[in-house]
Amino acid sequence: MPTSFWGWIVYLWQAYWPLLLKGAWTSLYISVLGTAIAFVVGLLVAVLRSIPDPSRQQTARYWLVRAVKFILGAYVAIFRGTPLMVQAMVIYYGLMQYAHIRLPLFVASMVIVGLNTGAYMAEIMRSGIRSVDAGQREAAASLGMTHWQTMLCVILPQAIRNVLPSVGNEMVVNVKDTSVLNVIAVSELYFVGKSASGTYLKFFEVYSIIAVMYLIMTFGLSKLLERIEKKMIGPENYELIRNEEDPGRV
């Protein structure tokens, strides 16, 4: 058996690298898909909460909009105000005990991460919608566009571009937060590391390997997202193409 720190690092990597890589892939897969689900959830919640309140004369519509906004506000408050680990336990075991629904672990992970991050994404998207100049909304209304047409064609394209860095940050955070899913026995990277460390009682060595793997995943994902963000935003400097017949016109 090894007698030094680096000796144990090499030994443990050789013994567990297939399981560690599989756990890392599971963490990465759950975080990316979970963030994609959260983006859709957050976008829908933000758009619905931005609906203007109808006049009180439209009684049924007024109270329907108010009820929807209250429910969505409660969803955001609950999922932002409770830990992800507790949410995982409540959703997975709660559905199993009271609804007699046993979700596959992968599906449960998607639902848990999607709902949790969706609450944060809703606030991110709402701030992105508010960052768009109000004059554009007024201009769209003057053209006869409805709330949904204004959102789809005018507000959301700009809002999504504005919040891209925050969306990417949530994805990076989710790579690390998937470690709490070990409470429902999801075989992600932390769960695999816990099993490996218990075999040889080499906790420091195993978690040093895991820390490096998490760092590689988050750093690589951050750089990839930066490239995607720059591609979507476009170049900082550009040259206007002018009309050769009339140089004064663009």
Question: How is the topology of this model organized?
Answer:
Layout: H1 5-49, H2 59-81, H3 84-98, H4 105-131, H5 134-142, H6 147-177, H7 189-200, H8 203-233
Characterise the protein shown here.
With 250 residues, the chain is mostly helical. It has a single domain (5-233), classed as MetI-like (MetI-like fold). Helices cover 77% and strands 0% of the residues. The protein has helices at residues 5-49, 59-81, 84-98, 105-131, 134-142, 147-177, 189-200, 203-233. Helix 3 crosses helix 4 (105-131) and helix 7 (189-200) runs antiparallel to helix 8. The longest helix is centred in the first third of the chain and has 45 residues, at 5-49. The model has no long low-confidence stretch (mean pLDDT 85).
CATH class: Mainly Alpha
Globally, the shape reads elongated
CATH-assigned homologous superfamily: MetI-like
Count of runs of 4 or more consecutive helical residues: 8
By helix and strand content, what is the structural category? mainly alpha
Tell me the domain tally: 1
Average pLDDT across residues? 85
Second CATH tier, the architecture: Orthogonal Bundle
Give me some keywords for this one:
mainly alpha; MetI-like fold; 250 residues
Q: What's the short version?
A:
With 250 residues, this protein is an all-alpha fold.
